[in-house]
Amino acid sequence: MENPEKNTLSEVFFPKSYDFKEKEEKWRKIWTDTKLYEFNYQEGKPTFTVDTPPPYVSADHLHAGHIMSYTQAEFIVRYKRMQGYNVFYPMGFDDNGLPTERFVEKKYKIDKSKITKSEFIDLCLKETEKGIETYRNLWNSLGISVDWSKTYSTIAPLPTKVSQWSILDLYEKGLIYKKELPILWCPFCGTAISQSDLETKERDSKMNYIKFGLSDGSTGIIATTRPEMLPACVAVYFNPTDERYVHLKDTEATVPLFDFKVPIRTSDAVDKEKGTGLMMVCTWGDQEDLEKWRLDNLPTKNLITEDGKITELGGKYQGMGIEEARKAVITDLSEAGILEKQESIIQSVNVHERCDTPVEFVLSKQWFIKITDNKEKWLEMGKKINWFPSHMFNNYEIWVDSLKWDWCISRQRYYGVPFPFWICQDCGEVIVPRKEDLPVNPFEQKPPVDICPKCASKNIEPEKDVMDTWATSSCTPFLLREIVGKPELFPVDVRPNAHEIIRTWDFYSVVKSTMHFNSVPFKNLMISGHGLDEQGRKISKRLGNYTPSDKLVEEYGADAIRYWATGAGLGQNLRFNPKEIKKGKQISTKLWNVARFIMMYDQSNNNSAEPAFEHADKWISEELNKTIEEATKHFEGYEYAKAKMAIEEFFMSKFADYYVEFVKYRLNGEDDASRNAALTILKKTFCNILKMYAPIIPFITEELYQYFKEEKEERTIHTSPWPKVIKSMEQIDISDFNEALTTIDEIRKYKSENQISLGAEIPEYKLNTKVNLDKYGLLVGKVGKVNRFI
RNA sequence: GGGCGUAUAGCUCAGUUGGUUAGAGCGUUACGUUGACAUCGUAAAGGUCUCCUGUUCGAGUCAGGAUACGCCCACCA
């Protein structure tokens, strides 16, 4: 500085503008160094445990949507911390299972035949490490207050132990079984999947009308999108009331190309209007086939192998892929004149959500958890949870209603938590470890017995499958307490997540906690919406319609982006909006300047006169009380957006626009008692504003808090107590203060209309509005710079 | 086909239990100010509160229906 003497004290403390890069960096470091967010259990202090979604490692596409959803939850966490809760806020990473494998396969363009299992797992571990690092850096830069010392990854020993314990417990309770059934299979990933892994995709397809030979020598036309399933055809159906076909009852049809006979049956479930009214059933082309097979004891014809090829059942088509076989069959049908016609249609197909491959039914032996026979229980437990927003419970309810199969939890993959089982190859007996030996790796460890307890065979092999990613992550509610060894942390207080994983993570967590402990896994569920781009499209990696998160923080600063995240209520989608981010910066600037203003007077004030409070002081204090009440109520209901609005209305419209103006004459005046009162109220009120803003914009509030906190207060705003309503100045009556406000507005308006500077003094002014001049004459006169009222 | 959500100013959104002339911010326009303020102030323009029907003295708010968009689920012969 060229002329340090000329600067006021406040300018030494407060540079003219707020440098968010420097300050955010500074506080980030201090918070980390002082282990501010580290959880230490304290007897008697209420805890608040947060079960944050463990993301997958594919962290290269973090965007504003991720920021939004994690930040919105974090507002509440910070609020709870200030409310005096001992917050346990660990972060986990879901680094096992198919999502990670798919990510690594894609990134390294892996040819599975040219890489060993251990090389592959090493790559998965490496990517996991990188993913965790990316998240940690971004979360830190955003000021997400997780306790990094309690980070878990789902494949580490403790989570593995908990997942395996869970499986063992379910096994002992008879709630898990291994059985050969037609199951959902992804031919691309080469693994069983579950109903919740499905997604619906529309695609262009052809409806093929195929001639079947009938026993009376005529032909029947069957419409199908899957002619390659013909060799697996086991029956033909029509509706019993369908006049066109009644004569066919109990006769046979001849399957074209393959020339074998199948029975013709009736079923009420056949829709006369769909297709031709004649329907072929194959084992198993779709859901309907499966139903008929199950109900009518139809034979099983397994046409598709686990890698999506046609089996020997397909004759000349054996070994072809499904699409390839379909084309070949259509060509052959067409050449043989059996294809009546083809129509182009748009077909919805179930695909595996990880790879978009249409799923198939294949007969396979898998592990299942029993979930279909007690839907009422899942609904009952779901209702015991507080859903924020409440209508999100509908999604849960619909999902439970639509459950068709038990939860298939085994996956034919490499990178995941192994089942804690060995299997007797002769009698199929399942051999389990002792619980105290968990976690176990059956591939490397010997079973607890050398011979099968059932058949005395020595032919015992490890269970080769690994667990579904949700089978492990659904354990987090009872994993968290294990991390710190405190049983009372279950059920957790809040789980925040986006709505697309209600049917997986949330539902499966309810299932497991119910089965193990007959308890809900979490008391409160906070469901966030999606981040949208500026045009309102969902932000997605595929569209590439986003700025990477680290760039956003770099450009705008953490506080500004967090501020943007308050723009939509919980569960609502939020558009990316640079203007709102700039608004966040504006609020920071305003806070900064108000602080500079107050400190300028505070630093130069050196008298200790007893403060004499005035009407304006009482007024702003009452307004503060109202705001505290409102903000508290909103934060309690997870309505951070409304809390922000209440705080902002008070800060901008009441405090900065009015109160600060009201006290300027007192700050510059000679009355020490009055000046001290104004300063006291300015500082106290501003400090409370900072505290209320702290959960939303933690950096600037922390910086300014250092100047406004009282000696005995916490060193950091983030563990300082949340503001409380304090009644004071009871002897001052401000029931008619609104008249003073109206009068001041009137004078401002008068000056503006008459092109008089607001700072200009006017000798006399005739009031239109009614005001008690004995009471408010000084205030109105000084603020309006009017010397005399007439 | 079933369910849920959203629909208010050019844009982003508030509108509590139905109660006068429907609000804020941003943007636009005009004028003014600029010694806490990469500001600020005063004002203007801008809305048949998606549509229809009903309940009511009175509906943005309640009921029924419709439309559009988004999501969940089902169906996909």
Structure report:
The chain has 22 helices and 27 strands. It is an alpha/beta fold and 790 residues long. A hairpin with a 4-residue loop joins β10 (252-255) and β11 (260-266). α19 (672-693) packs antiparallel against α20 (698-708). The chain is elongated. Mean pLDDT is 90; it is low at 1-11. The protein binds one RNA strand of 77 nucleotides through β7, β8, β12, β13 and α10.
By DSSP, the count of extended strands is 27
Mean pLDDT: 90
Helix content: 40-55%
SS field, number of helical segments: 22
Proportion of strand residues = 15-25%
Radius of gyration: 35 Å
Highlighted features:
790 residues; 27 strands; disordered N terminus; elongated; alpha/beta; 40% helix; 22 helices; four-stranded antiparallel β-sheet; seven-stranded mixed β-sheet; RNA-binding
In short, what is this structure?
The chain is an alpha/beta fold and 790 residues long. 40% of the residues lie in helices and 18% in strands.
Can you lay out the helices and strands and say which pair or pack?
Blueprint (H helix, E strand, L loop, with lengths): L8 H5 L6 H14 L13 E3 L14 H19 L3 E3 L1 E4 L4 H10 L9 H26 L4 E7 L3 H16 L3 E11 L4 E2 L5 E17 L4 E6 L8 E6 L13 E4 L4 E7 L12 E4 L4 H10 L25 H14 L3 E14 L7 E10 L5 H9 L2 E3 L4 H9 L5 E2 L1 E2 L10 E3 L5 E2 L28 E3 L3 E2 L1 H5 L2 H9 L7 E7 L3 H16 L4 E7 L2 E2 L16 H8 L1 H7 L9 E2 L2 H27 L10 H22 L3 H28 L4 H22 L4 H11 L28 H17 L8 E4 L7 H12 L1 E4 L1
Helix pairs in contact: 2-20, 9-10, 14-15, 15-16, 16-19, 16-20, 17-18, 17-19, 18-19, 18-22, 19-20, 21-22
The protein binds one RNA strand of 77 nucleotides through strand 7, strand 8, strand 12, strand 13 and helix 10.
